[in-house]
């Protein structure tokens, strides 16, 4: 009999992912955001810190006084430098590209 091998989809916990991508300063802050119901994954509210996140998921969360929308492009293996973290997601927040280009021009 032949067995079909189903590829395992690599995932990360939402609290660790937010911390590793430097979207929160501490893992505890990420856990607070999730447990208070402020984070959504693919449009559904997440209430468990153990929620699995995979490549392609859309995460919506509060950021300062606005809402941040990001698409996960790759899963980090560690909490690396900011440049490494920025390569792991695409920001779909309205006006995010304009603010980045303005900051780059001002520097």
From TrEMBL:
The keyword RNA-binding applies. Coiled coil: none annotated. PROSITE patterns: S4. Gene3D superfamilies: RNA-binding S4 domain. The keyword NADP does not apply. GO terms for molecular function: RNA binding. This is RNA-binding S4 domain-containing protein. Keywords: RNA-binding. Pfam families: S4. Residues 12-74 form the RNA-binding S4 domain. SMART domains: S4. It comes from Croceicoccus pelagius.
């Amino acid at each position: 009999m032949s067995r079909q091998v189903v590829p395992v989809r690599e995932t990360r916990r939402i609290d660790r992912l937010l911390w590793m991508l430097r979207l929160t300063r501490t893992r505890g802050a990420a856990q607070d955001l999730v447990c208070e119901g402020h984070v959504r994954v693919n449009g559904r509210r997440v209430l468990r810190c153990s929620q699995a996140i995979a490549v392609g998921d859309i995460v919506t969360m509060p950021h300062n006084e606005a809402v941040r929308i990001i698409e996960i492009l790759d899963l980090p293996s560690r909490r690396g430098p900011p440049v490494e973290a920025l390569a792991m997601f695409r920001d779909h927040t309205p006006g995010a590209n304009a603010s980045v280009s303005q900051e780059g021009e001002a520097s």
